Amino acid sequence: MNSVKHKAGSRRGSFLYGVIGALLIGVSGAYFLHRYPIRIPVSADAEKAASFVLKNDGAQVTLLVDTSVIRQNWAHKTLSRADFSYGWTNVLQQEFGYFDIREISAVDSASLAEYRIVVYSESALKGLAETPAMTKQLVEYVSAGGMAVLDYPSNEIIDWFGLASKKNRDERQRLSRLELGLFLGKDLNARADGGIPDSLPVFSTIRNYGSVASGASIEIQSNSCFEYFNYGAGGMLLTKWDFGRWVTLTQQGLPDENLNTVNRYADLGHSDKLEANDLVADSSYLNSVYPWVDIVEKTLGNLIAAKTFAPRWHTTPGASSGIFMMTHDDEALGDVGAWMNVYESQFGYTSTSFLMPSEKLSSAGVSAVTSNGGEVGLHWNRFDRDDKASLETLGIGRWRPLVRRRNLSSQIAWLDSLDVKTSYNRNHYFLWDKDPYRLFRNLNAAGFTMDYSYGPDLNDKGYLFGSAFPFYPLDDNGASFELTETPVTWGENFNGADSAWIARLLENNASDYHGVINALYHNNTFAWAPDYSIYESWRLSYELAQGSRHVMYTASQLEQFITARSTSPINWEIDSESVEVYCDATQPDLALIVPMLDLYRPTISIHDAGMSLSEVSVIVDSVSVMDSAYWRIVFPKGKYLLSFERSSTSREEGG
Predict the structure, then answer these.
(1) 278 with 432: CB under 8 angstroms?
(2) Are 581 and 641 in contact, with CB atoms under 8 Å apart?
(3) Residue 650: how many other CB atoms lie within 10 Å
């Protein structure tokens, strides 16, 4: 009996010890999983391809495209066969603001005649070459007084118009050295005799190049940049290289032949990851104070204005000379990172802060940014490694046995939990995919409207992508995304971006380019590298921007300005004695610029019924764009009618 009891007690004891052991193992396992959670895979971010935008808004400037040709060429998924017709949207967005985009097949002679300036893109020229009726339309359009811009036309098209034949050679107008000098800006006369350099360091990809590493200079002395021809009562301006392609592959970056990002500049110290600067088309751009794309685009705009009357919205608002943006990246510093915004607000400055997911950041930290005049964007962390700021723990209560990297949707949800709604992004470390188009497809699917992920990291400064004005990236289907990219111009004092360099950058922008200068200062830089010169350049950059008449913009203000330029109508009528311009400024401080050639000072009347000129404040002054003189008329919001009388000495009379 005792033996039976002993066995039963032994079984109960063993069971109890087993339960205790299991509990200890379970608690230890739970603690271990809490301390070292299991990593689970993250779901892929949604992608949404760009779509072709066509618009017929009644503008008098239009871009003609053939989307079927564009799709066909991009279907090969090789760079040399791709069609960059939609790169012209960025040219027209910067230079005119308000313009149409039409299918060439949808335009007949009557509708073409409504336009003052027509750009025939690469794809449109193919349709032109294959359809005699379209060629006839162009002949009639230019002969009647229109201005046609042809993107790198073939020799066959040139021959059809007799532009190179002996009969018309005397009417061929070669661009003067003064006009070609518009490429150079005011301080680029590098030769000892003060003359124009023989060539420009502008990367040019041609239609059927063999190697993506090959580059060519656009020659100045041989005048192979642009060519203009009188034709009937109008004119034709020919780009002498593949202009839409060059603009896109300089602004957006140059991938390899198979449309992949390559580690082009691994010697800069970031060989473990792909960054935006790996897309830079030419190494000479890595430290450049010259926005080469803007220079060439503005040269084109000035040439058009020199040959035909072409009013357009200026690239900067009001009487300002440029736009200055201060931006900050939060590297998981959390609530205390708002110190820069708090400090800036004491001096009346504003900025845009890109925030990273972190347990250190709360609604209070976000409020500290926004209540001090700052705006908020996402600092999208795309690292695959176990970066605490980018990891999301999963479980019940405080027990979190699972962990996964936050994808884009999760990081957006994290911002939502802090009552932050934003459509602005900047990649952490400017990190890039092998597929350089995926970033924009991800942002497009998530509803973002502006990105700031292009520009120099720790080893570069300046206009790496040749542009100081927001541009619309293209997808690998040839279509344009409806979100803009604004490149960073410098970060902290990296690679010599000190106050003297910043002053030179702002002064050049104020006098010639009139673009967006986008500065980056991290809120934890002073913990990384405590250096008074960084503090000084941060403070002085605001003062230098104000001293050079730059207006301070946040991300939302820049977006509103871009939208207003593209949705505010401009139309004009020309007769032998005068020109009348109608414009509808959809927001205050839009500035209309009109070439001074052959024109007196404008007279202005109010187009809206019931208003008088005394009720509004209209500023009329002059502005120089790459050494070309324009009237600048700054309006309050409203509709206006401007009259310009022709000078007694006109171009047609030899003046």
Answers:
(1) yes
(2) yes
(3) 13
